[in-house]
Amino acid sequence: MGVLAEDYFEDSAEQRLYRKIYFETFRHLGFIEKCLRQLYKELPGPDLRAALALGASQILFMDDIPDYAAVNESVTLVQPNKKSFVNAVLRNLIRRKEEFQANYSVREDFPGWFVKRWEKRLGEDLEAFLYDLNTKPSFYGINRDTMVLEKLEERSDNYIMDKASFAIAKLAGDCTPMSVLDCCAAPGGKTFVLSETYPDARIFAVEKNPARFEKLKENMAGMGLGNVDCVNSDIMELKTEAEFDLVLLDAPCTAIGTIKRHPEVRWFRNLDSLRENGALQLEMLKKVSTFISKGGIIIYSVCSMEPEETTDVIEAFLKHDSSFQVIEPSCDAEFKNGKYFLSLPYKNDSDGFFGAVLTKNF
Ligand SMILES: C[S@@+](CC[C@H](N)C(=O)[O-])C[C@H]1O[C@@H](n2cnc3c(N)ncnc32)[C@H](O)[C@@H]1O
Prior knowledge:
By secondary structure, the protein is an alpha/beta fold. It is built from 15 helices and twelve strands. A hairpin with a 2-residue loop joins strand 10 (336-337) and strand 11. It starts with 12 loop residues before the first helix and ends with a strand. It binds S-adenosylmethionine. S-adenosylmethionine is lined by residues 165, 184-190, 206-209, 212, 234-236, 250, 252. Residues 165, 184-190, 206-209, 212, 234-236, 250, 252 line the site of S-adenosylmethionine.
């Protein structure tokens, strides 16, 4: 997936323009394709659809780009025998631009399954939620001297990190762990916060993917953290006699909570991918729960706000092992949602994140 947060303040105007076209196209793809379908008889293949969508997003949503420039760019993207087709469709779109713009609905910028479930959850807040998901995300970063998370307006030396992601690593609050297992660690943002929050602890940061493991090691070395050991391993295969006072499972997930930073993610996820991820997350939680020491704590988190990857996983886990219980997360009131941590982008100026804190009654 796409655009690195660090690139966001990139100076090159050309890069900013390309990124804006990319973002606007994926944000509005549902609505754009609905308009385009009214302008041709037969569904064109993927390359033509991409060229048409890129042109249409500029025509419909980017006033600062002249319509003729958008058409010309799309025409250059396709094979010679398709140029007149792309030219004709986009010129028709320009002719009917005002009519289409007048019928714009933000709901069509998202897949139907997503809108339906969020309408049930939020009622009249739905549109505010959807509009916000289509806006530019804020950037926060950790000031390396003070360890305070600051909102960033320009490039800085701060370690870029989402507000909710930062809060996740602190959910266990004022405990004094001597050993911490960070099960899915790369690129290491939460490892960094854990290391600074619990300086007396030894932190084992496990990452399966070799390339991401290298990035984790590089990041940890760059920060000069003395209490972190990086381990290149699949957490599901990890064999150890050691027990850990704090286990963080920042599990792989659909990342649907990062829609603002990755507008394309909404089109690549569906109910099946939510269920598949939920099943994997449950297995991972079962496995990592075996590593916990007496009185130890597990933080479970995902950058998703969907029940299949969040509350359903915790409930299924508690059914599997009733010796665990959910305890109150240590976080600002803005993130509290019953006994869980939940950030919603339109309320918290953050990614969508879920967190649960579990402890075991031995
Ligand atoms: C959500 S990201 C973690 C982000 C990280 N905690 C941070 O704050 O920077 C999930 C990571 O888990 C890794 N991962 C997935 N399955 C794993 C497994 N079975 N064992 C160890 N790492 C795994 C992925 O490669 C990915 O880097």
